[in-house]
Amino acid sequence: MEKKRIAILGSTGSIGTQTLEVVAEHPELFSVEVLTANNNAELLVRQAVEFQPDAVVIASESLYRQVSDALKDYPIKVYAGNDALEQIVDQDSIDIVLVALLGYSGLMPTIRAIKAGKIIALANKETLVVAGELVTGLAARYRVPIIPVDSEHSAIFQCLAGEYSAIDRIYLTASGGPFLNLPEEKLAYVTREDALKHPRWNMGAKITVDSATMMNKGFEVIEAHWLFAVPACDIRALVHPQSIIHSMVQFRDGAIKAQLGEPSMKIPIQYALTYPDRMECKVKRVDFADYPALTFAEPDFKKFPCLDIAYNALRAGGTIPCIMNAANEIAVQAFLDGKLKYPGIYALISETIETTAFIAKPSLDDYMETDAMARHNAMKILGGM
Ligand code: MN
User: Fold this and answer.
1) CA 80–ligand 1 middle distance (angstroms)
2) Which of 130, 145, 211, 332 is the least crowded, having the fewest Cβ atoms under 10 Å away?
3) What's the mean pLDDT in 175-183?
């Protein structure tokens, strides 16, 4: 079998480093062509020395010299800047682009990779939250598959293998995050550290805070809508604290398929890279004796209003999800910086949606302008809070 040649956009983050672990376990299957990082120059250099890609990109231009000096004895091309990050996916030597960039920054490189005809392994859900209609439309036009890496969507994707009938309903499971059992009135006092203690999944800071507000699940509802063409009313978030069932699909005859496993991103990452094949994967196997009860509950929309905002944004369409995402990025960063209390995250997002101009049928330029305007408005509202 020919080796699959991979570009990893965002190789120094949580998904990026786990992707390289998958690659290292299967050197016969994969070769790394491109690695990119935002500003973790040190780790990017170490990864480049180990995996010997054709090229690396460091987005922060001020770190160019550090990276190029460290790699000067290797036949590795070094580029810097956001334009380079976008252009690099055009290389003929790339088969799959794994997008593990943070937030909105995933959008433009994903669009570029689709236009270059590359298979997309998508770990960056914000790309579909912000511009799902445009991105999935482009993928259809360029006949490029978007293979989900997000564990729930990978689960759905796995449930759909071999199925031809329409989906009746999706059950999107949620761990419930660290505040599932905290009384609602105590949410006003939770700290950054409380929010970063996720009970079941080990992830980056941004997505961990999104899990604590359940905005992450709201984003995933939107992501599922665009990936699987299922309307909002047929996508049900379901709190399942054990996180053993990674999501389920119900078909028109009432049959339900689920994908199960111990929580680990290794399987969804590897499946996206080896699809439609399955390969050996060194992850803990489920011992059902450890889980005498798998439990399920409806999410509490009142306690976690971000989930409600996301459903409403999906129903409203246009630029509302883009505005919501921009405001959420500002709010989460402010919360991590200690400048915003937990309930302020929701308040900031909903006020930004109310004050930012809505466009019903946005072009790519409209999305870019809306993202910038929403950030500007969110910063202004944050200043007055
Ligand atoms: Mn997920």
Assistant:
1) 30
2) 145
3) 95
Q: How far is the CA of 64 from the centre of ligand 1 (A)?
A: 33
CA–CA distances in Å: residue 130 to residues 98, 311, 326, 348: 18, 14, 9, 18
The 3-state DSSP class for residue 236 equals: strand
Query: What are the pLDDT digits (tens) for 110-123?
Result: 999 999 999 999 99
Question: Does pTM top 0.90 for this prediction?
Answer: yes
Domain locations in the chain? Answer: 4-148, 151-315, 317-385
Q: Minimal CA–CA distance to 145: which of 162, 120, 163, 127?
A: 120
CATH topology of domain 317-385: Rna Polymerase Sigma Factor; Chain: A (1.10.1740)
Distance 263 CA to ligand 1 centre (A): 10
Judge contact between 32 and 49, C-beta under 8 A: no
> Could you tell me the distance, in angstroms and rounded to a whole number, from the CA of residue 264 to the centre of ligand 1?
11
Do the domains at 4-148 and 317-385 have one common CATH topology?
Answer: no
Model pLDDT, residue 222 = 98
Split at pLDDT 50, 70, 90, the class of 201 is confident
pLDDT of residue 43: 98
Distance (angstroms) between ligand 1 centre and the Cα of 371 equals 23
Query: What are the structure tokens assigned to 263, written together?
Result: 């929580």
First and final C-alpha spacing in the chain = 58
CA of 185 to the centre of ligand 1 (A): 27
Q: In what order do the strands lie in the sheet with 256-260?
A: 235-239, 167-174, 245-251, 256-260
Spell out which residues have Cβ within 5 A of ligand 1, the ion: 150-152
Q: What DSSP letter does each residue of 268-336 carry, written as one string?
A: HHHHHHHTT-------PPP-GGG-S----B---TTT-HHHHHHHHHHHH-TTHHHHHHHHHHHHHHHHH
Q: How far away, in angstroms, is 78 Cα from ligand 1 center?
A: 32
